[in-house]
Design a protein that fits this description.
mainly alpha, about 110 residues, globular
């Protein structure tokens, strides 16, 4: 039996959770919303600051509203994200998010 967290992760990796790749979001809204910038989660505060500057509003610090379940002392907290992947889930992510990976220069393990 697959642990429920592992099962949810596999569904996410396969793109079956309603998670939209950047490619799909751009294609869906390109005709309705012209955009010239896509912020990246891994530099969220900096990209948010850039948007604030662009639209002329004051910058503010983003709060961590839902930091996740992993807390200090949790056995999973200090693991590198690659330890949660199997060869099959790596292939699922590479397939489903191929354009995102290519366009943003993502590399597994970095």
């Amino acid at each position: 039996m697959i642990h429920s967290d592992r099962k949810r992760f596999i569904f996410f990796a396969a793109g079956k959770t309603g998670t939209t790749s950047i490619e799909r979001a751009l294609a869906e809204y390109a005709d309705e919303i012209p955009f010239d910038f896509v912020g990246r989660y891994e530099r969220l505060q900096g990209d948010f600051d850039r948007v604030c500057d662009t639209v002329g509003i004051p910058r503010r610090a983003l709060e961590s509203v839902n930091p996740g379940r992993f807390r200090r002392g949790d056995a999973h907290r200090d693991k590198h994200y690659t330890e949660f992947y199997t060869p099959a889930t790596i292939d699922l992510v590479r397939s489903h998010y191929a354009r995102d990976i290519r366009e943003f220069g993502y590399r597994f393990g970095e």
